[in-house]
Structures are given as C-alpha cells and as structure tokens.
Inverse folding.
C-alpha cells in the first residue's frame, strides 16, 4: 500500500514536471514567434523570412500551424543539446 502510494506520487510529480516544461516551451515559442512577427528588426529580416523550400517559400508564407510548430521546435532545442536550421536574423532575436 505504501509502495503504491509513493509510486503514484512520483508519477504525479513527473507528470507535473512535464506539463510545466511544455508550458514554458509554449511561452518561449510564442515569444519567439512574436519577435519574428514584430518590426523590431535592425536588419529588416526575421527568422520568418528564411527560405524553407527551393522555390523561395519562407516561414512567413507557411501556414500558422507550421509556423507554431517550427517555433515550438526551436524552443525545445533551446533547452536541449539539439539544433535546427532556424537561426536568429537580427539582434533582437
């Protein structure tokens, strides 16, 4: 009985930690997207202006779902040793 109780407690703490990390990554993602959409660029470019296809399609031209998932992926890579092709294009980013 005591073992099951502590197992559920640990499972609950683990689930809470995962939810907190997902929420923090969501906030970072939304901030990264907002900075990209804003006109706070000293170069005139943002990460949304990077090309994602050979025919010149940019992140700005992509669907909002694709933009969100790209920004979320970028946020995850900031908290892990991973990397991705999206990089800052101005001083603010």
């Amino acid at each position: 009985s005591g073992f099951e109780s502590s197992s559920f407690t640990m499972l609950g703490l683990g689930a809470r930690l995962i939810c907190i990390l997902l929420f923090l990554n969501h906030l970072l993602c939304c901030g990264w997207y907002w900075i990209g959409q804003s006109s706070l660029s000293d170069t005139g470019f943002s990460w949304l202006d990077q090309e994602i296809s050979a025919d010149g399609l940019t992140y700005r031209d992509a669907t909002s779902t694709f933009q969100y998932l790209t920004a979320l992926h970028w946020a995850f890579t900031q908290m892990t040793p991973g990397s991705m092709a999206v990089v800052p294009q101005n001083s603010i980013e």
